[in-house]
Amino acid sequence: MSLDLDKRQRAMLREMGVRLWQPPSPPPVAADAAINTVAVDAPPKRAEGRFDVEAEPARALAPAAAPAVRPPAQVPVARPATGLQPRPAGVELMDWPALQAAVAGCRACALCESRKNTVFGIGPVAADGAAPQVDWLIVGEAPGENEDLAGEPFVGQAGKLLDNMLLAIGLQRGHDAAAPRAGLSTSVFITNVLKCRPPANRNPDPAEVAQCEPYLKRQVELLQPKMILALGKFAAQSLLQDSVPEVQKIPLGKLRGQVFRYLGVPVVVSYHPAYLLRSLGDKAKAWDDLCLAQAQL
Ligand code: SF4
User: Fold this and answer.
1) N or C: which end of the chain has fewer CB within 10 A?
2) Predicted model pTM
3) CA 241 to CA 237: how far, in whole Å?
4) Site residues for ligand 1, CB cut-off 6 Å
């Protein structure tokens, strides 16, 4: 059996560290015989660039009877690096800057692999870098594509609707560069249950929510809001899981119109603005929810 390797195959073996012994040139053969030899002995063709099959190249290209071709000591295999790490310890004791830094560097779930930015939240900035003390905390589900790019929650059309809802009750999204408009308050912090975007805007995975929850809990402890508005199913489930039995089985509509508690803070549940963009008829219910929340204050 001949070891009839072409230029590309030799280059592949060289990359793998396989040294080839070059046999003496075979005696000339008739043209037909040479064609038959190639048809029987040539290794099957592979797609260009697909170089991830362990040991297969050596098996296909080096027959057992060819002692001069040694298998490589180690064949490199391309695998995605996950790089997951435990969540930083002591989240429950962190101050605001430490919490921001912990979220920014967090690699505790697989969402860190695909995110462009972490989305900690947006609100007024306290002069000393401490957590701003706000009346309102708005909690959504997770960053979407726009939020991931901007590093800010609730941007895009859903964000505009939320801003208009807040304006209707005298609130303005706080921002480093933005002074509050006359008659408006920036006493509101906006965040999400998850701080990183699920790919393709899929629903959050329960394991991801569990990994990320301590950050939200610490945000609530440090912000000390007087009212939490939970927007959407995942925010409601996350905030009420310890106080409402089997909350996962309760439709969002049935959680509306009541005042719950999370860490002692009143919680009102409402629809997510992205849902309201598709279901205009429910905007009136969202307004009722805002009025209920405001009445508690
Ligand atoms: S989603 Fe939360 S737990 Fe997962 S990597 Fe982002 S910050 Fe960490």
Assistant:
1) N
2) 0.73
3) 5
4) 103, 106-109, 111-112, 118, 194-196, 208, 211-212
